Fold this protein.
Amino acid sequence: MKKFRKVLDGLTTSSPANPGGSPACGSAAGTPSTAPTPRELEIQETLMSEHFQICKTVRHGVPYQPTALAFDPVQKILAIGSRSGGVRLLGRPGVDCHCQHESGAAVLQLQFLINEGALVTACADDTLHLWNLRQRRPAILHSLKFNRERITFCHLPFQSKWLYVGTERGNTHIVNIESFILSGYVIMWNKAIELSTKTHPGPVVHLSDSPKDEGKLLIGFESGTIVMWDLRAKRTDFRIYYDEAIHSASWHHEGRQFMCSHSDGSLSMWNLRNTAKPFQVTFPHGKTQRDGRKESCKPILKVEYKTSRNSSEAFVVFSGGLSYDKAGRRPTLTIMHGKAITVLEMDYPIVDFLVLCETPYINEVQEPYAVVVLLEKDFVVVDLTQSNFPIFENPYPMDIHESPVTCTAYFADCPPDIIPVLYSIGAKHKKTGYSHKEWPVSGGTWTVGSQTYPEIIITGHADGSIKFWDATAITLQMLYKLKTSKVFEKPKSGDVGRSAELVEEDPYAVQMISWCPQSRILCVVGISAHVILYRFSKHDAMDLMDQLLLYVCMEDVISPSDTENTPSFSDPSGHSPQPQPPSPRSNTPDSMRDSIPCLKVKDRMIRMPPGYQAELVVQLLWVDGEPPQQITSLDLNSAYGLLALGNCNGLTVVDYLQKTILLCMSTLELYGSADPFQRLTRSPRKNRQSTSGTHAPCVSESHECSNAVCFFVTKLKLSLPTDLKTDLGTVENSFSRSRSSSVSSIDRETKEAVTTLQFAESYGRKSDTLPTPCLWVGTSLGLVLIIPMSIPTDEQERLEDPVTVAPTGTVLMLKGSILRIGFLDCGGALINSPYEVWRDQHAPDHPDRPRKRKLVNFSPSSSQEASGDGHLAVVCSERQAKVFFMPSQACLYVHNITESSFVLRADVVSVCNSVCLACFCANGHIMTLSLPSLRPLLDVNYLPLTDMRIARTFCFTNGGQALYLCSPTEIQRITYSQEMCDNLQEMLGELFTPIETPEAQNRGFLKGFFGGNAQTFDREELFGEAAAGKASRSLAQHIPGQGGMEGMKAAAGGVVGELARARIALDERGQRLGELEERTALMMTSAETFSKHAHELMLKCKDKKWYQF
């Protein structure tokens, strides 16, 4: 048995190095003796499958395509429904919960069971759902599916268990909320209207009970018919037939009059004493024309009529109603208070609004204090207590989509000082004029969990802006906003420039972000083929954006022998003059206009406020009438002072400390004679389509300007390995074709993109004994090149002496495009890249403490200490993952991740004090592999790739967390750590808190005597089965929800883990105790009955003699 194990160890060491017959470049098959076996490394892996579990944590942003709004005035909880079937529940900051209907049907209406911890949702599939909000993860308790009628409106009176449901046929049904069973009591449309009426009144658009008498129900039909239905007498009190269609109605709190909004932009007031005609009709925004007629207005979709104790005038709030002749006006919310009319313009169309009042009782003075306005892409709360009606500052991140999100980055366990610094800088640019009162949606409770660490999310946007968000403890708060477009000149009107041909709009759109939290250096890649490097400073700066120009000339004909030539490099000390390229807007011949960038950098002194300040701009130029394509890969290392960027044909390494280009080579030239495919470069064709082929660039000498901050690099064209503009219908097939592992096509081999870059302390050659600064380059053909560099260690020498970059031809090989490269030490711990500790370059000089560069993980001593051990390199491609031992370059482990799909995102992350490889595939699977052995630990079909937005924004981070843009306006955060899933209940906020329902006001004897008081009646007596009978079974079907016992049992095995199991056990125990209590009650009843009969028998036989029996 021991011999067999040794044979297996030998196979795992040598055989995985060359699967599939690929060329074994630098593999273990060539040098098996120099590589240690996995057993010799003795790396103890602690991660097991039990450590992983997929679970959604929290969703940020305004709900996408919202449809409905509701508010609990006692619990102070807000609910928002969406077209995709989602329900968002919001309370105080930190109380934020997202629920989803499995059907995905749009939410039509929401109704809170006020102060009961429950919510009713009406969906477009004609189903009612009852949600239990008394748990941190709400669940459906009951569902009721209507089979023959479509739901149009719902109304639930305060402190009632009977829900009124209006339908498209004009009928009104009544549902028992406790049992979710339909009552036999039905208000049929033909009984509500007069028999002489020949037309159908239309769908029910409004239901409300009278504040004066709960036994009276006001029913509004779309056609303009209004009916007051007497629930006790089962007949109508009055009918109103109005010429205009009704959209909504609202009562005065005394119940004597109500207001309706109509399709012609009018508001009608009705008095119950005389319902023959309205006693007042107003067109708030309709002016009287010369002929005496009112100008036509848009419909008023909703109106709310609220009274205030401090003012004799009521508040009338409505949306819509503007005149048609004012085209282009933004959507408005109008607030009428007495004779004053205030029109609030909104940025987006109004979906719904609610007036928040102090009391939940409809028969009391309402005392409105705020208006919640739900917009298509925003959420606004207006303060009604101040005359200028300011808005409240929104504590939720509802402006993520202010400009469309184009990329994301997620950083967990950041330096603790970075968040306060970013917040202090960003706070200086916050908007003012907000209401000074507390945020009114203040329900629920939330406390910061015990296991929290600083987290930052960075989002890049289509307008070139970058936002830093504090994501600590499942919250999200904006810290700082940076506008990259300020680096460039604004295009003049009528002169769009070359950027218009590259991008129809959004020429500043952010494509990639690279951020070093320790050095606070930020690097941004834009869609116009530009890279901007920023440094952080707490002080103002005035800088001149001068330019260092660099030509990369292209030869027309390239012979096969040219591939053996070594490239020429730019000389930092060169002073040979060269012509200045023309400005993007200069009138020059076409041959000269090719050598221009897409955007023009500002060439004057500009003030840079505290925060991130631009230091360097790199731009790619137009060549042969074609725009430069986007950059595919980027990496930055603050300790080295180097920046590397790649595209479909080449690689550029920039020394941003000396403002020089160190390396600018085509991808093919990086291999030299070590090209595994022995390819030859080809001469470009004359037509425009052929210019995307590979060319060998030669780099001319450059001259240096003072304060030079801008590079221009010619002909580094890119095509993204995962083309984000691919049609969604053919995404899988097109990606699969482009990622074929076959190398038979010379055309495909020569078009090789640089897909990933990674600076690290590594070994560039097998013979190296000490690790040196290296750049690892991964390509779209699955090849990895290692480029060693020689960097001066002295600070002064680093700024003066050149950095030497020398490609060695070292090649490693995998299947599919390379996505991620990471490094482990021989103990299996993650090796972090060297970095420079942050220093403020614009801070005043201190004579006693001169500012010097402080480098971490970058010194000769640390290299010598680790020289005898070597390290492990983890390389992941779209199909495969391999672990190599350096410097021998032996492949120790290999794992084929997928054959039918491909990996979109991969990262080496820290989880549970260990390290693993996390992957997200195009087929929706999320996988984790142990390191270094690449054992599968988790494989869950979580999220199908339905939108390229997910592929573009999905990213992993340490701590078992990940995020992606689930809609254009929302960020979804998930965890794949079982530990975090178990602690999620502690991290989430409580939606329901026990609060006593406020008591109704004592209205006094006289008001009650003269009919002003509300009359109460027993709805159970009217709607119960005893009085109304059973409803038809075919009308609606009751569906038990997952919030019951069975649903909790199913959830116990997954998301909620041991906590849910304990809760289930407790509930089952309670259920058994309840059954025992019922049996005990039955026994007591039986005993009382027996005692009663015994007593009666005793009385009957008391006077009888024994012989009379």
About this structure: The first helix runs from residue 2 to 14.
